[in-house]
Design brief:
143 residues, mainly beta, Pnp Oxidase, Chain A
Length: 143
């Protein structure tokens, strides 16, 4: 019987996010990486209806700065619904090497959320951008 080496889980805090080939700087959270399957008992999807991913989209979160990148991307997508980009979320190993890549093909923003502003607290102001996508793939680095 072959002996398998123990493989430690990857740390969730070491990641990068790209829109196309451009890095999205200062993203502090990427949540909602969800893939849901169809229940075969319900038969084939209706060919007259678009095949949209179900469930919530991926949410990118970052601290507010004077960079309007999230805002501009959302506004562009609202004025041009055909505007879609591939978004890569890259999880790194403990040494900083790319370990896992999730590719969101045909991603487009559907919701921008601004910070909760409160005069009685000293928390960082965060903004978030929710993305929907046509397809998600799990890739090995360098693919």
């Amino acid at each position: 019987m072959p002996v398998h080496q123990r493989e430690d889980p990857l740390p969730a805090f070491r990641f990068r996010v790209y829109r196309g080939t451009r890095a999205l700087l200062q993203v502090t959270e990427a949540s909602g990486l969800v893939l849901e399957g169809r229940n075969p008992a319900f038969g084939q999807p209706d060919p007259k209806k678009p095949d949209l991913p179900s469930g919530p989209g991926v949410v990118l979160r970052r601290g507010v700065t004077q960079d309007k990148g999230f805002w501009d991307w959302f506004c562009q997508a609202q004025s041009d619904p055909a505007l879609k980009d591939d978004v890569r979320i890259v999880l790194m190993d403990k040494d900083g090497r790319d370990a896992v890549v999730w590719m969101l093909e045909g991603a487009y923003p559907v919701r921008w959320s601004g910070p909760d502003l409160k005069a009685d607290c000293s928390a960082v102001a965060f903004e978030s951008l929710e993305l929907r996508f046509d397809r998600i793939r799990w890739e090995s680095p360098g693919q």
